[in-house]
Amino acid sequence: MNKVVRTASEAVADIAHGSTVMLGGFGLCGIPENLIAALVERRVKGLHTISNNMGVDGFGMGLMLEAGMIASHIGSYVGENRLLEAMVLKKELDLTLIPQGTLAERIRAGGAGIPAFYVPTGLGTMVADGKETRQIGGRFYILEQALHADVALIKAWKGDRLGNLVYRKTARNFNPSMATAAKLTIAEVEELVEPGNLDPDHITTPGIYVNRVVLGAEYRKPIESKFIKSGGAA
Amino acid sequence: MIAGYVPAGIDVMFQSENGMLGVGAPPTDDWADPDLINAGKQPVTELPGCSFFASEESFAMIRGGHMDMSILGAMQVDEHGNLANWTIPGKMAKGMGERWIWWRLRDE
Q1: Is A200 exposed, middle or buried (0-12, 13-18, 19+ CB in 10 A)?
Q2: Where are the beta strands (DSSP E) in chain A?
Q3: What are the tens digits of pLDDT across the range A134-174?
Q4: Do the chains contact at A105 and B60, CB–CB below 8 Å?
Q5: CB pair distance less than 8 Å for A223 and B41
Q6: Which of A61, B66, B74, B95 is deepest in the core (most CB within 10 A)?
Q7: Does residue B98 have an active-site annotation?
């Protein structure tokens, strides 16, 4: 079994216009930057994206936005992107904001075969509009639906040709759950290793969830918010 | 931000919603690891005993009631302690903070 694809361009070559695409990452941390670049090169249009954030102006998903590739977006926080704000206000893009924990759990549920679940988050607010509510054990909850995608673009630290993946530090974030919730999961990695080189106890995403693996050509990994102090206090 | 105001001798472990327990101070020199950030997307360091996990687990630990305390940022607060923390009617909503989490601590 060999899931390795030679280039990011080859990995995204068959993603269709109008697809629903999940993209891993938190801010610019742990984003599939090579796969995004390849998708931008293809100018795939009308995408329905699901990602915690929307990159920044000029990097990450911001590049997809600037190329006019995104028709709708589901996320939890988009405050770092001015173009998105302008497009939403002009109704050029349909934006849905979801509490972050609910977003993560909806994706997890999608991959785990759970169609919907009850959560307390958002009860009594706009978040609950149009959703079923139910009292369980004396508390009220709202019913949230699982999320699925046609494609998940994810980023891991190391991977092997079977699709087994290991993440690094806080670059893990939404990547493992998204890997489980799409029909086609494409992972880019910083290091491609031989099967057996990853400690099976450390594999976070078992290869069964991954369809394609590509070695990222280069990583810029910009730090979104510089806050480095001398002296040590946080 | 809050971590900088904890008095000496008090032992606190901070969680960051993006998937870390045991968040340390910002790096003190030019070195910063882009794979090691807090929920404000700022570089941080690791404290001994820290751990990393995925977003769904991060919020399971928050929603599941495992935190002793949460520190919230807000746009407005009323005399009853009700918070407005994610949208202003008629304006662009940028995203919501959940009830139990300590994100959005940046000045906006």
Answers
A1: exposed
A2: 20-23, 47-50, 70-75, 94-97, 116-119, 133-136, 139-145, 149-160, 165-166, 182-193, 212-215
A3: 999 999 999 999 999 999 999 999 999 999 999 999 999 99
A4: yes
A5: yes
A6: A61
A7: no
